[in-house]
């Protein structure tokens, strides 16, 4: 039956499936996920759409429409590779390893989250591919926290980025009008209404593209793990402030960032519940200072952009995501003009079949 060459749609009951995976904005709580701490992300209305059509044969074809590139590999055991292909192959391999019976398919995807902009185009791609592949196979959707872990394994083991669970949980479990307070020690997730009362959250790309596998991200993670080992705790978030202050550098400042950032997440939840957006702005500024001075994850382009946004009247501005480039998030008071290059972001729905 296999033609061995081009995509041939089989005339069976197998049906095409489309899915949308959103990117995310992290309001606050940066570099805390892999440290067993707290974060407050939300899914956005930008993302990746993937459409899977059934094929005969035993392979998967993937088309990155925006790049004009394709990939093809056996359903039963894709080999490792690099770039966007590593995501597609990893998703297929990890879904199969989790016991999902996938079907041969041709998957076409395209997106509107700029790659490397800090809005997690990678989580958007992972979640869209997962849901489209599950859909075309007629497979039941696994528990979404488990699915987030699976997507995260793809980044860790197939793409080589030691990222945490923040982006995948936000993309899969986000909710319109809400941010998610995630406790990464327990994976307890609480929806927090994000009522902006006329204020605006905007992101601006710094133009300095970051790539987790190649940036200082993995190095920071190793420093945190070393500091936690030194303190005899599983994650830095379990350390006391007093013990953290006795660590040698850079562990001392890394731990100081993690502990203070966890506290800022809960302060932000309180400020949102009280409708005090001015206070949220102050917490964004404090997060940025901590990421810059204690976590050493800023770059000159990001610093220049944060200053420009503050001069333009932002009540708070901070680098967002993995750092070392990418996007800056800013909070603007009601009536403020959008600074050049800024895109307003609001909490949108989670990853879903279309
Ligand atoms: C990236 C990673 C996340 C998280 C953030 C920093 O977005 O993918 O897991 O670690 O950086 O908060």
Characterize the structure shown.
- By secondary structure, the chain is an alpha+beta fold.
- Helix content is 36%, strand content 22%.
- The protein has 9 helices and 13 strands.
- The chain has a 6-stranded mixed beta sheet with strand order 5-4-6-3-1-13. It has a 4-stranded antiparallel beta sheet with strand order 10-11-9-12.
- Helix 1 (84-97) crosses helix 3 (144-159), helix 2 crosses helix 4 and helix 5 (217-231) packs across helix 7.
- It is globular, with a radius of gyration of 21 Å.
- The two termini are 30 Å apart.
- Mean pLDDT is 93; it is low at 1-12.
- The structure holds alpha-D-galactopyranose (GLA).
- Alpha-D-galactopyranose binds next to helix 4.
- Alpha-D-galactopyranose (GLA) binds at residues 30-31, 33-34, 120, 163-164, 166-167, 321-322.
Describe the largest sheet. Answer: 6 strands, mixed
Number of H- or I-type helical stretches: 9
The rough form would be described as: globular
Radius of gyration: 21 Å
What binds here, in terms of ligands, is: alpha-D-galactopyranose
Low-confidence stretches: 1-12
CA(first)-CA(last) distance: 30 Å
Estimate what percentage of residues fall within beta strands. Answer: 15-25%
Which oligomeric form is depicted? Answer: single chain
């Amino acid at each position: 039956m296999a033609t061995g060459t081009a995509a041939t749609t089989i005339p069976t009951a197998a049906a095409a499936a489309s899915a949308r995976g959103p990117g995310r904005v992290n309001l606050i709580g940066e570099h805390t996920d892999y440290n067993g701490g707290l974060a407050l992300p939300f899914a956005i209305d930008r993302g990746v759409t993937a459409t899977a059509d059934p094929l005969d044969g035993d392979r998967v074809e993937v088309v990155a429409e925006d790049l004009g590139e394709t990939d093809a590999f056996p359903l039963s055991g894709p080999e490792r590779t690099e770039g966007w292909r590593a995501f597609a192959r990893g998703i297929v391999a990890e879904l199969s390893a989790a016991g999902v019976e996938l079907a041969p398919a041709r998957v076409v995807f395209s997106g509107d989250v700029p790659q490397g902009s800090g809005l997690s185009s990678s989580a958007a791609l992972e979640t869209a591919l997962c849901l489209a592949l599950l859909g075309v196979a007629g497979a039941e959707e696994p528990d979404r926290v488990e699915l987030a872990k699976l997507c995260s394994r793809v980044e860790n083991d197939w793409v080589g980025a030691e990222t945490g669970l923040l982006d995948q949980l936000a993309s899969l479990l986000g909710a319109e009008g809400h941010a998610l307070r995630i406790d990464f020690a327990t994976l307890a997730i609480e929806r927090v209404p994000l009522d902006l009362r006329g204020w605006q959250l905007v992101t601006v790309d710094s133009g300095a593209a970051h790539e987790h596998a190649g940036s200082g991200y993995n190095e920071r993670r190793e420093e945190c793990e070393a500091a936690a080992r030194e303190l005899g705790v599983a994650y830095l978030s379990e350390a006391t402030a007093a013990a953290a202050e006795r660590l040698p550098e850079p562990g001392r400042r890394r731990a100081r960032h993690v502990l203070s950032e966890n506290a800022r997440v809960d302060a932000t939840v309180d400020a949102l519940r009280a409708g005090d957006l001015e206070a949220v702005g102050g917490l964004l500024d404090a997060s940025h200072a901590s990421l810059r001075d204690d976590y050493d994850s800023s770059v000159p382009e990001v610093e220049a952009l944060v200053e420009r946004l503050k001069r333009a009247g932002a009540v708070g501005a901070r680098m967002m995501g993995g750092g070392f480039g990418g996007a800056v998030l800013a909070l603007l008071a009601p009536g403020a003009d959008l600074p050049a290059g800024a895109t307003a972001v609001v909490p949108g729905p989670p990853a879903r079949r279309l």
